[in-house]
């Protein structure tokens, strides 16, 4: 039995906010800033703890050492889940040592699917190369993980360069594109070696307008390039 995505944050607190329009409604950025500026604020603490689904979280920004403990709980036994690991921060900004720890946890859980989502594939690529070198010393090649997916998000034309970065930085990995949210017509898109694409409009109280033709144009191009279109 396979379930849909579960957002899971090995690291929480994106204080970057440097991606402009794409970060406009990002809960991770605003909650992180609230915690950094008002430590101990109870409302924000509860929201963050709920978001990472980890009752042992200290409330501090950074890596959660026991983030993967919940994957061994009864509710996850015998079931295959998809875990989106970049829910509360961009994994391209994580220290390389955090990426290494995440790779170790993924290795121990081959039944589940894990997705690393970044807006800066080139930076994540450097950290992943470090993790690969470290894991190779103990005879484990992370490029062979069938349950690991590297993804980037593209919602605007000006962010299309990320697709090229993803393909160049992760030649040996499974790659996906998240057009979530899709904020304009992207025009002609060369998907390269990307295996699958996921498209959706923005959600939430402050969601921005979305035109179906934008999605339709991208879906047509994906099919022409033999790229799977997923919800």
Structure description:
Helices cover 31% and strands 17% of the residues. With 231 residues, the protein is of the alpha/beta class. β4 (80-84), α3 and β5 (113-118) form a beta-alpha-beta unit. The strands form 2 sheets. Strands 1-4-5-6-7-8-9 form a 7-stranded parallel β-sheet, covered by helices on one side. A two-stranded antiparallel ribbon has the order 2-3. The chain is globular. It has one domain. The chain is built from 6 helices and 9 strands, in the order ββααββαβαβαββαβ.
Chain-wise SSE layout:
Blueprint: E1 2-7, E2 11-12, H1 27-37, H2 42-52, E3 62-63, E4 80-84, H3 96-107, E5 113-118, H4 121-136, E6 148-153, H5 161-169, E7 174-179, E8 196-199, H6 212-224, E9 228-230
Parallel strand pairs: 1-4, 4-5, 5-6, 6-7, 7-8, 8-9
Antiparallel strand pairs: 2-3
Can you summarize this structure?
The protein has 231 residues and is α/β, with parallel strands linked by helices. It is built from six helices and nine strands, in the order ββααββαβαβαββαβ. The chain has helices at residues 27-37, 42-52, 96-107, 121-136, 161-169, 212-224; strands at 2-7, 11-12, 62-63, 80-84, 113-118, 148-153, 174-179, 196-199, 228-230.
Biggest sheet overview: 7 strands, parallel
- Integer count of domains: 1
Write down the secondary-structure element order.
Answer: EEHHEEHEHEHEEHE
Mean pLDDT: 82
What class would the helix/strand composition place it in? alpha/beta
Distance between the termini: 18 Å
Strand line-up of the largest beta sheet: 1-4-5-6-7-8-9
Beta-strand residue fraction? 15-25%
Helical content class: 25-40%
Count of runs of 4 or more consecutive helical residues:
6
Radius of gyration over alpha carbons? 18 Å
- Based on CA inertia axes, which overall geometry fits? globular
Number of strands: 9
């Amino acid at each position: 039995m396979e379930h849909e995505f579960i957002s899971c944050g090995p690291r929480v607190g994106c204080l970057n906010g440097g991606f402009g329009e794409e970060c406009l409604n990002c809960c991770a950025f605003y909650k992180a800033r609230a915690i950094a500026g008002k430590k101990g604020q109870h409302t924000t603490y509860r929201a963050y703890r709920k978001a990472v689904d980890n009752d042992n979280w200290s409330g501090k920004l950074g890596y959660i050492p026991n983030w993967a403990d919940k994957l061994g709980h009864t509710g996850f036994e015998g079931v295959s889940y998809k875990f989106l690991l970049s829910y509360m921060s961009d994994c391209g900004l994580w220290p390389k040592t955090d990426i290494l720890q995440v790779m170790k946890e993924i290795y121990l859980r081959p039944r589940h699917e894990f997705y690393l989502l970044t807006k800066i594939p080139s930076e994540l690529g450097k950290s992943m190369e470090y993790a690969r070198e470290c894991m190779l010393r103990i005879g484990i090649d992370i490029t062979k993980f069938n349950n690991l997916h590297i993804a980037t998000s593209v919602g605007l034309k000006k962010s299309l360069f990320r697709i090229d970065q993803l393909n160049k930085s992760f030649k040996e990995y499974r790659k996906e594109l998240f057009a979530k949210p899709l904020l304009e017509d992207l025009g002609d898109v060369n998907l390269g070696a990307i295996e699958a694409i996921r498209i959706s409009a923005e959600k939430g109280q402050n969601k921005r307008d979305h035109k179906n033709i934008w999605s339709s144009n991208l879906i047509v191009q994906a099919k022409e390039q033999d790229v799977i279109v997923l919800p």
